Amino acid sequence: MSSTAAHPVASTSHPAHLEALHASVHADLDGIAPKKPKEKKGKPETVSQFPLEVQPRPDYIEHRIKIFDKLKAEYDEFVKAQPREEITITLPDGAERKGTSWETSPLDVAKEISKSLPDRLVIAKVDGVLWDLERPLEKSVKLELLDFEHPEGKKVFWHSSAHVLGEATERHYGCHLCLGPPTDDGFFYEMGMTDDRLVTTADYASLEKVMESAIKEKQKFERLVVSKETLLEMFGYNKYKKYLIESKIPDGTSTTVYRCGPMNSASYFLGNAENDSLQRIYGISFPDKKALSEYKAFLAEAAKRDHRKIGKEQELFFFNDLSPGSAFFLPHGTRIYNTLVEMMRGEYYKRGYQEVISPNMYISKLWETSGHWQNYKDDMFTLDVEKEKWALKPMNCPGHCLIFDSRDRSYKELPIRMAEFGIIHRNEASGALTGLTRVRRFVQDDTHVFCMPAQLEDEISALFDFMQHTYGLFGFDFSLELSTRPDNYLGTIETWDAAEEQLRTALDRQYPGKWELNPGDGAFYGPKIDITIRDALRRSWMGSRLWLESDPVWWRNLLGLGVFIVAKDCVKLLHLWLAKQELESRHVKNRSFAGVDVSGLDLINTLQRASPAS
Predict the structure, then answer these.
(1) What pLDDT, on the 0 to 100 scale, is given for residue 46?
(2) Mean pLDDT of 371-375
(3) Same domain as 444, residue 385
(4) Considering only 323-327, 397-401, 590-594, which range has the smallest mean pLDDT?
């Protein structure tokens, strides 16, 4: 990591939106909110009053190093004793290279290919499994070499960077580390302080200096496979690590542990911890300074396009603490919202959908039948009505099933395509609420298609066409993932296998080679296709989802983040459209409002003219 450019960033929900290194008091890993330490009032400190590194260093650092060094010496002797044999290393293009077992490493192969290649690499894959660049190959293998631009390479790079951040926090605070994983936008590390000290903005410069010194030392990442018993000895001083080892690693088994300078971190450490108040620091890193500069430019542009900022400036919507997670749409925002709804209504009519309206709340018996009570209750708003449990609907599906079941149906009626702009409530954690992207109350444009198995192929094709047409109006690119059976699935494996195979076939037919598999992430009642769209800054957002339920029923929600995406990607156009200094009166369907005449076009046609990259 000698060429690494590190840049700490902020925000527990969207780290890429802010520029300063961020630390926050974070709820414990069980999700039980701990008491937050009281922060001092007044202006935040800009210079730390604490030394760069704690002196003397915590005893546990030397304790860990002694155990690791002893095990590493034993492992080195083991490697020396292994027989050396000629092996064949097959590259992705089919080319073959010869090597020696227990000697030749992926890094050696990279050096043979090109002198400059090793400087760009992050990790290797050996027979489909991630493999350290300097770790010797043990037999003939298929080898891939991954750089930072590869999704897995980027994740490993950020995981390694998290280890460097962990080392810096130990050296600066003398804290006890908990978790330090990569994220979609960088990495973070959580820690428990041994005293009452809080992480503040004044600490960030010190942390960066310690990280930079660790990087300049060109510390190696050394890997060992260690037994559970040895791990407990190594991390016995740290109750967070100890808890994770005891709860996550079965007795009599082993896991990997890495050393980076004085820092050790077991790669298996994921899961729950005791209910302590942990502090979390976010960061991001890149292989070179050019990429870091580009990222800072991205942050500046992202700040300009923050939909919360635009919503306030353009008087589209706002939020109030008296109803957290529920948007108040102002007149300008309501007109945009209604225009999007009318556009969808027109598409529903053309595509044979019938609009319905279902209740907002139901007795718990319905949710027990659907499985939501057992699998989703914690995310629902429940209430007591006349000694019975009720819940606000978190989705429209059960209501549409009741509409379908309200009378006898003939096969001649199928397919039946229902659509609803249903009001949804979900009990999202307060700390997760983020503008229009994560709310408690919203309207979801749901459709459900009730059809016979023989009609599935045509209905799937029609849904894909609907999706592609709608996203095409706004110039959005999208990607597709098939999410398969989760651990808490309902129904039989045979039913799930059949449903998943139908979706695979549909994706291969419509988008051959252009979709990914997401194992185990389906809904408990059926597999799904997740459609992710990209905004003007090439960030990914969850868009539409297609579910296949038994008997068979299709569920689709398409518009979803409509106003949020429109606000972000058409900011310049909206500014013109809503400009107050050029107001004139015009009529739309016999309703008057103040607006701007843009080329005589309605809003949707106008938005089609806007470049998402503008």
Answers:
(1) 59
(2) 85
(3) yes
(4) 590-594
Q: What is the DSSP string of 85-122?
A: -EEEEE-TTS-EEEEETTT--HHHHHHHH-SSHHHHEE
| 411, part of any domain | yes
Residue 267, pLDDT above cutoff 70: no
Residue type, 319: F
Domain CATH code at residue 142: 3.10.20.30
Backbone angles phi, psi at 190, to 5 degrees: -105, 145
Flag the least confident range among 82-96, 105-119, 413-427, 549-563.
Answer: 549-563
What was the pLDDT predicted at 559? 55
| C-alpha span between 27 and 36 (Å, rounded) | 9
Residues 161 and 202 in one domain: yes
Q: Which pLDDT does position 19 carry in this prediction?
A: 29
Q: Encode pLDDT of 446-501 as tens digits.
A: 888 888 878 888 888 888 888 889 888 888 888 888 888 888 787 788 888 888 88
CB 455 within 8 A of CB 412: no
Q: 253 by DSSP, 3-state: which?
A: coil
Length of the chain: 614
CATH code, domain carrying 332: 3.30.930.10
Mark whether 130 and 161 lie in a shared domain.
no
CA dihedral 488, 494, 497, 502 (to 10 degrees): -120
Mean pLDDT of the chain: 78
Question: Has residue 12 been placed in a domain?
Answer: no
Are residues 142 and 191 part of one domain?
no
Q: How far apart are the first and last CA of the chain?
A: 36
Structure tokens at 13: 């929900």
Task: List all residues 6 or more positions away from 290 whose beta carbon is below 8 Å from its beta carbon.
Answer: none
The domain boundary, picked from 147, 167, 195, lies at 147
Residue 473 pLDDT: 85
Whole-number Å distance between alpha carbons of 23 and 36:
13
Q: How many domains does the chain have?
A: 3
Write out the two tokens for 356: 């319905």
**Is the residue at 8 inside a domain?**
no
3-state DSSP helix/strand/coil % of the chain, to nearest 5: 35, 25, 35
Whole-model pTM: value is 0.59
Q: Is 128 inside any structural domain? A: yes
Average pLDDT over residues 147-162: 91
Quote the domain boundaries for residue 211: 59-66+153-287
Quote the tokens at residue 518.
Answer: 């997401």
How many Å apart are CA 290 and CA 261, to the nearest integer?
Answer: 27
Q: Are strands 478-483 and 129-131 parallel, antiparallel or unpaired?
A: unpaired
